[in-house]
């Protein structure tokens, strides 16, 4: 493991609540602890960079107004990167990802948008996907007003955000939505079936994610156990992957989700989707949010920028 990654894990261990009795903790208390631990990741992001402009768009949704934050690195018409934050769909926020989103906008030169999607268990799946659809269609409809280049729109996400990003890309095809020209999947969950058996789930257990916590996250995310086999939840089970756009897939060597992410990439290749896969050696889950403590984050941003330039 990269020494910088190991230092991050050691620091998190000193800050996180004692999880020795987590199995006996009721859902409300466990969720509060999980949300607190998710907020800790922002501490590793470093100082937020200055961005040319940050604005907010409020768009109607089925449960009220959906907030979309726009990070504009420079004036003029720009391509759009819609990013969906991680957090197991039960935690996380735009604010928690703010330093990473600023850096993403500055490094790529793209307009980065991020929406404050509803979280489970208060709003179980498919609320998160529906909010992504609302954000995507609203941004596309307002392309002229927002100085968005509609010929270059890409969706991205980290962790469960990557899962939602690829589900959103599939929905855009199935429902004749806005055309997406790529998807960026950063260490995504791709198989949420109970007890999914991937070697990295065992060999890297406890590196940011542990097996018991992962199962509990999924239980809180979904309305029923049957949803685990829904291809919009577990995209590796989808039959129609050939319609998905060119894909940038990033996995981390010391991440429990490594093998399922790479298995999804292989499925995409098998049906003819162009996949640019990069495994970050020695690195752990959530590296996008660790720019203040590891050089791997800067290298990741450079790789994303180079891939987007090809779009």
Automatic annotation (TrEMBL):
Protein name: Acetyl esterase
UniProt-listed PANTHER family: AB HYDROLASE SUPERFAMILY PROTEIN C4A8.06C, ALPHA_BETA HYDROLASE FOLD-3 DOMAIN-CONTAINING PROTEIN-RELATED
Domain Alpha/beta hydrolase fold-3, chain residue ranges per copy: 81-288
GO MF, one example: hydrolase activity
Listed InterPro entries: AB_hydrolase_3 (IPR013094), AB_hydrolase_fold (IPR029058), GDXG_lipolytic_enzyme (IPR050300)
Keywords assigned by UniProt, alphabetized: Hydrolase
Signal sequence, renumbered to the chain: none
One Pfam family in the UniProt entry: Abhydrolase_3
């Amino acid at each position: 493991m990269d020494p910088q990654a190991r230092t991050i894990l050691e620091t998190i261990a000193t800050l996180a609540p004692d999880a020795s009795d987590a199995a006996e903790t009721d859902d409300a208390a466990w969720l509060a602890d999980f949300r607190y631990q998710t907020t800790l990741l922002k501490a590793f992001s470093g100082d937020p960079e200055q961005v040319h402009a940050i604005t907010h768009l409020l768009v109607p949704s089925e449960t009220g107004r959906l907030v979309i934050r726009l990070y504009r690195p420079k004036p003029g018409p720009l391509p759009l990167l819609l990013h969906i934050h991680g957090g197991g769909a039960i935690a996380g926020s735009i604010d928690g990802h703010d330093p990473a989103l600023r850096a993403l906008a500055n490094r790529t030169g793209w307009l980065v948008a991020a929406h404050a999607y509803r979280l489970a268990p208060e709003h179980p799946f498919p609320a998160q996907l529906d909010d992504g659809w609302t954000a995507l269609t609203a941004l596309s409809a307002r392309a002229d007003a927002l100085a968005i280049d509609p010929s270059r729109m890409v969706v991205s996400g980290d962790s469960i955000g990557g899962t939602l990003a690829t589900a959103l890309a599939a929905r855009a095809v199935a429902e004749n939505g806005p055309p997406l020209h790529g998807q960026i999947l950063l260490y995504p969950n791709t198989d949420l079936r109970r007890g999914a058996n991937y070697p990295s789930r065992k060999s890297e257990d406890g590196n940011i994610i542990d097996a018991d916590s992962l199962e509990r996250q999924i239980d809180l995310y979904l309305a029923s156990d049957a949803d685990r086999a829904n291809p919009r939840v577990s995209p590796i089970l989808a039959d129609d992957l050939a319609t998905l756009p060119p894909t940038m897939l990033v996995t981390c060597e010391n991440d429990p989700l490594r093998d399922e992410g790479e298995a999804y990439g292989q499925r995409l290749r098998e049906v003819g989707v162009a996949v640019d896969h990069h495994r970050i050696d020695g690195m752990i889950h959530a590296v996008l949010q660790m720019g203040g403590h590891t050089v791997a984050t800067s290298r990741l941003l450079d790789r994303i920028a180079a891939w987007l330039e090809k779009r």
